[in-house]
Amino acid sequence: MVSARTTSLLRALPVVAIAVVGFTACGQSTSTPTSPTTTTTTASPITYLGNLSVSGATNLGGSLQLTASQSATAARIADGRRGVLSRIHAWVEPTLHAQASVAATGMLITTVGAAVPLSGTFSAGVFSMAGGGYGLTATVSGGGITGSGTAPGGLPTVVSAQAPPPPAGPPPSDPSGTYRGSFRIDTVFVFRNTFPSGGVSQCTFNLAITGTLTMELQNLGSGQVKGHLAASWQETEVSRTCAFAFTGVGVMTSGIDFQGPVTNLQAGRVDSGAGPNGRGTITRTQGFSGVVSGNTILGTVSRSFNFTTPIATNPGETHFEGYPVSSASVTLTRG
Fold first, then answer.
1. How many domains would you assign to the chain?
2. Of all helices (H) and strands (E), which one includes residue 97?
3. In this predicted structure, which of 163-172, 186-195, 244-253 has the lowest mean pLDDT?
4. Are 191 and 202 in contact (CB under 8 A)?
5. 17 and 43 in contact (C-beta within 8 Å)?
6. How far apart are CA 98 and CA 224, in angstroms?
7. How far apart are CA 276 and CA 176, in angstroms?
8. Considering only CA atoms, which of 250, 180, 295 is closest in space to residue 13?
9. Beta 265-274 vs 252-261: how paired, if at all?
10. Under a CB-based contact definition with an 8 Å cutoff, are residues 224 and 202 in contact?
11. Which domain holds residue 102?
């Protein structure tokens, strides 16, 4: 059994980016197991968000992030400095589309909170991905992804774009500027042990994920922008069925560089690392999908957390804690 003390420690551990291939600065954390955590990370601009539905098995579907790797040339240039990022953003995605094939990574977070890593290739605007019994092909169009594939058991799947909210008005001729807003996501954090006999012991926390977003946009012309999304947030217990209190890890911060059309701004990242003593895997995802509308950006912000590990002292027993992709609407105002 994983104790409440153990869970507070593992949630404070730093995580290492796995799906942030692209122009990426080293992810670092100033966390310690006994103090509030501030995690600062920077991620790739070439990430696409989508939804995966599975015919006949809703628990196998979920939220999808796919990320295309940089070219060999870009990899030599990308040294983690924001000045370098700014100079090359304008040609990164066209270069990727023109290449015969580059590496791609991804993550599926199912509706029940399971984390499924994916890997494959990106060629001529098409992702070909596989992992965890899944196989899919997704095409980039209009800043989003659509496609199809199969799930475990050969069940058919459909990949649909994670569409932004409808705009209330047209974008300005020059959308450049800094947009800011706050958000609150309500979710249920599950703490569960599954025993070799098939029995389950489970309790839950109702959490409020509250934070702020700051998005900087630079106009590239022809309806395209590049930008940087900075986030700061924390998780707070609202109520619980568990006998012990939820221990948050303090304020977390992140940064994501991105590029795309003003009608479909998408930014996402996946971070993953080993649990305490190298046991299990911790996975966090962040996502944003939005549209420029007048002097605002209307969007949807999402978060997920997953920790899964076998219990060494009881072979066959597994522990899971976390919440599936949970989201909320957000409005960012220029000013």
1. 1
2. helix 82-98
3. 244-253
4. yes
5. yes
6. 18
7. 43
8. 250
9. unpaired
10. no
11. 4-334
